[in-house]
Design a protein that fits this description.
This protein is mainly alpha-helical. 31% of the residues lie in helices and 5% in strands. It contains 8 helices and 6 strands; from the N terminus they run αααββαααααββββ. The strands form 3 sheets. A two-stranded antiparallel ribbon has the order 1-2. A two-stranded antiparallel sheet has the order 3-4. A two-stranded antiparallel ribbon has the order 5-6. α3 crosses α7 and α4 crosses α7. The radius of gyration is 18 Å and the shape is globular. This is Tyrosinase copper-binding domain-containing protein.
């Protein structure tokens, strides 16, 4: 890690360093649940934060996503608007984080470049079935309802619908729509909205888990990221993941197993998403 970076930057570094282990693998959802909880704990322990972990319910903003309250320019409480094209860097210069320098991959100000058709940018080495799809289509209430009510007892199918790139699900739609730092697979946590976005994804997983008994402890997929054969292994190639699989915490916390992240009601987490 960079000795001159902040503790916030350390989270970005961990996301970069562990990326091949917890993206496009079975660990995606449990790892990000751990990551969010660790970040929230750090806010409380190091910053005297006493609030809950907020989430951004993008389904409330599908009619006018760029006017969402999360894109607020307030210098004390805002997350900032989209970047300006004036210097072609698309830097977010307003909001509470507008002048903050992020350490990775090199010192810079957070950038955002809105893309209403995020699946038409060829970021990944495979095509999309509907590259013309609008960014908000995966956020529509009916789309999320179908995800939550489907895939009964089938974790890999649920995880693919949430995260699967070729499924054009809500996870990648939001990242690619916002572009800039959020549009990068490695250092997206530079943008504080990363945490609000992933907190909502975690709540969707919790909602799916609680909907039916078959979903509660459903888990599966592989531990190996295989982008070259993504069509065969969208939730990871062998070896198979299980409850004893260890999440890559990279020293932020003591070792954590998948089993420790399977329920938000246990002593490891102890929270409830409020809709």
């Amino acid at each position: 890690m960079n000795a001159s970076s902040s503790y916030f930057d350390d989270f970005v570094y961990v996301h970069i360093d562990s990326n091949v282990k917890d993206h496009f693998t079975a660990l995606f959802l449990p790892w990000h649940r751990w990551f969010l909880n660790t970040f929230h704990t750090a806010l409380k322990d190091k910053c005297a934060y006493s609030g809950v972990m907020p989430y951004w319910n993008w389904s409330l903003d599908v009619r006018n996503i760029t006017n969402s309250p999360v894109f607020d320019s307030d210098p004390e409480s805002g997350f900032g608007t989209f970047g300006s094209s004036a210097d072609e860097k698309w830097e977010v210069k307003d909001g509470a984080f507008g002048t903050t320098i992020r350490a990775y991959p090199a010192p810079h100000v957070v950038s955002r470049k809105f893309n209403p058709h995020p699946f038409d940018n060829h970021v990944f080495p495979f095509g999309f079935k509907a590259p013309e799809m609008h960014a908000t289509q995966p956020f529509a209430p009916e789309a999320l309802e179908n995800i939550v009510e489907g895939s009964v007892g089938n974790f890999t199918d649920f995880a693919y619908k949430i995260d699967g790139v070729t499924a054009q699900g809500p996870h990648n739609a939001a990242h690619l729509m916002m572009g800039g730092d959020m549009g990068n697979l490695l250092w997206s946590p530079n943008d504080p909205l990363f945490y609000l976005h992933h907190a909502h994804l975690d709540c969707i997983w919790e909602k799916w888990q609680e909907l039916r008994p078959e979903n509660a402890m459903a888990f599966g997929g592989g531990l190996t990221q295989d982008v070259d054969n993504y069509h065969l292994y969208p939730v990871g190639a062998p070896p198979a993941a299980n409850f004893s699989s260890v999440l890559p915490t990279e020293g932020l916390t003591s070792p954590i197993r998948v089993a420790d992240m399977m329920s938000t009601k246990t002593r490891n987490l102890c929270y409830k998403c409020v809709w």
